[in-house]
Amino acid sequence: MKNAVIYYSVGPLLYCPANHVAIADSIITQKFGSGYSLALCLEDTIGDCHVAQAENCLIQSLNHIYQAQGHTAFFLPRIFIRIRSAAQMDSLLKRLGSSRKIVSGFIIPKLNLDNIDTYIQMVLHINAFYPERFYTMPILESPSIAIPGKRADVLFKIKERLKGIEQYILNIRVGGNDLCHLFGFRRGIRESIHDIRPICNIFADIITIFGTEYVISGPVWEYYSGDGWEDGLKQELSDDKLCGFVGKTAIHPKQVPLIRQAYCVSKEDLEDAQAVLGWQEDTPSFVSGSIQKKRMNEYKTHTNWAQKIIYLSEAYGVL
Fold first, then answer.
1. Domain co-membership, 90 together with 229
2. Residue 312 belongs to domain spanning
3. Is 276 exposed, middle or buried (0-12, 13-18, 19+ CB in 10 A)?
């Protein structure tokens, strides 16, 4: 889709275990500031024996946030629930009642050809049954996409199946840590995941196959303290942007401002994007020097870039 600013506006997606009892108060008191989305996780961050408890905690937290809106002004992030199964989508929405109105959608972990049809049917069901629109963000991280000789075929088949719910897909996400886990990789505090060639190759195929239709979000950066963590995150964000990712998963509030800043649009890019999109069809030449006379703007080859810059400027702001 990626034909509206909403697809670019997930921003830093702050992950939090769904059993974090203080999350509601943190949102209401704006402990995390603003300009981010929130993922309440029922999957990898929760022990298998504690899922029911985490679901109860999630319901209580969302009810608290929903009710607080009536008497307190605070920044309400887009809230997504990372589920373990398709059935959890319907079950949680039923239990939430009116509080479902503050849920933007669901994150589907480890999407693959074995589970995709079940998830597609459930996404269609909840969007037909409830008056609200619930988006989804599938994560590509399963072992089936790690095998070079089979990866393209698997990814193309997943993409073809997802056409049935394309209007409900906000972003495609990649599971950097899950893919690293397959090989026993873990990058250091000053190392970019894009320097790990097997993982980088997987990312390249995902972006090549999905990038023309979907916004694809960058992988999690797991460092939030220690000497060099900020420089490491900034470098990986630079690599993310160069490869075509938009936004990034965050695992600590300290990462949020750096992710937002990385996707702010420069004044030069915005001016050139506006110039490209403002080109007249009857203009004799479709090439011109940039506004600041530093590079070439070409109407026929920079239009997609220019539209992306406009969306990013609306979602992240201008430096």
1. yes
2. 268-316
3. buried
